[in-house]
Design a protein that fits this description.
transmembrane; Cadmium resistance protein CadD, predicted permease; Cd-R_transporter; membrane; transmembrane helix
Length: 203
């Protein structure tokens, strides 16, 4: 039992450390769902589960030596949130009013795509972790990750329904929400080392 709790605690720490930024993204999506109806709440939750599942599956496959991910080119996934943010900035209303900000992500696949892009760097953490786990501990990690995705969505839904958060996004969300997505994309690109690799190729 002690080993089980220790493994579950370690899994919780790994998930929390690699997915703190997802709280921001999920909160923004829930605020958008509340104001515009897009994406729908079930699409946010399901998309988050699909995205995390894809990340974990990729990490398990890489850890098993069945696939080699090209580094740092996975960071190119950062272009997705940048593109979504720029599109939303271009579609923002010209006047300041109480209309809700444009939906940056419109549906299930969009949510899953943003989750994968935002978590591409998670694979670098998950791979060495899963390499050291025996099958039993691996199952514990998967169960904990599954439960924590639900917790993350619940926390973000609460934040997305908080009056102050909703009021803030209502006032400045037309540029704040797209700007958050652009910033996330830039962090992914720069953090993955893609710009440096492009400079090396150009040289």
């Amino acid at each position: 039992m002690t080993d089980l709790w220790a493994t579950a605690s370690a899994a919780t720490a790994v998930f929390a450390a690699t997915n703190l930024d997802d709280i921001v993204v999920l909160t923004v999506l829930f605020v958008a769902a509340r104001g515009t109806g897009r994406p729908r709440r079930w699409q946010i939750v399901t998309g988050q589960y699909l995205g995390i599942t894809a990340l974990v599956a990729a990490a398990v496959v890489v850890a098993a030596g069945l696939l080699v991910l090209p580094e740092p080119w996975t960071g190119l996934l950062g272009l997705l949130p940048i593109a979504l943010g720029v599109r939303a900035l271009r579609s923002r209303p010209r006047t300041d009013d109480d209309t809700p900000p444009p939906a940056v992500v419109g549906g299930l696949l969009g949510v899953a795509g943003v989750t994968i892009a935002n978590g591409a760097d998670n694979i670098a953490v998950y791979v060495p972790v899963f390499r050291t786990l025996d099958p039993g501990d691996g199952v514990v990690y998967l169960v904990v990750f599954t439960a924590l995705v639900g917790v993350w969505c619940g926390v973000a839904a609460l934040l997305g329904g908080h009056r102050r958060v909703v009021d803030l996004v209502g006032r400045i969300g037309h540029w704040l929400v797209p700007a958050i997505f652009v910033a996330i994309g830039l962090v992914i690109l720069v953090g993955s080392g893609v710009p440096g690799r492009l400079v090396d190729l150009a040289g």
